[in-house]
Write a structure and sequence with these properties.
Length: 149
């Protein structure tokens, strides 16, 4: 259930990043109408969406680097969100110093970090499932017929 929802969100972010960014600004900024976005922000949102879709919809392994980077980003955002918030504000807005953040930006950033970790976890589970991993780790769910003498 979560995988299709996150894939849909990623596709929305790729196809229509502006409404997603505007919704985040309404949630996080006291005066979103004063935000002066940098031109490449829409592409940054699209890249995030592509990563979500690629990690969750792929049918093969080979994205350990991307999963690892997204996982590290998720852990950092969850544990120490404030420096990441400040960095992202300066990367996204030309007037970051003039913008007032709402009080729930830090919990929202931690939630985003959790979403990153969820995407990584779901993508890893997909890879294990496709390799035939089983409960006992043998790659098969057939009963063990080993006779001990």
């Amino acid at each position: 259930m979560l995988r299709p929802l996150l894939i849909a969100f990623g596709l929305l972010e790729v196809a229509k990043p502006k409404p997603v960014i505007e919704a985040c600004e309404r949630i996080g900024l006291a005066t979103p109408e004063n935000a002066d976005r940098r031109p490449l922000v829409l592409w940054g949102a699209r890249v995030e969406g592509v990563l979500f879709v690629w990690l969750l919809a792929r049918r093969e392994s080979g994205s350990r680097l991307v999963s690892g980077l997204l996982g590290v980003a998720g852990v950092v955002i969850v544990l120490v969100p404030q420096p990441i918030i400040q960095l992202s504000q300066s990367l996204v807005y030309t007037n970051a110093d003039d913008l007032e953040l709402k009080p729930w930006v830090t919990p929202a950033a931690r939630l985003l970090g959790g979403v990153y970790l969820l995407v990584v976890g779901l993508s890893m589970r997909s890879t294990d499932d496709e390799r035939g991993a089983s409960v006992d780790g043998t790659g098969t769910d057939a009963p063990d017929t080993t006779v001990v003498r």
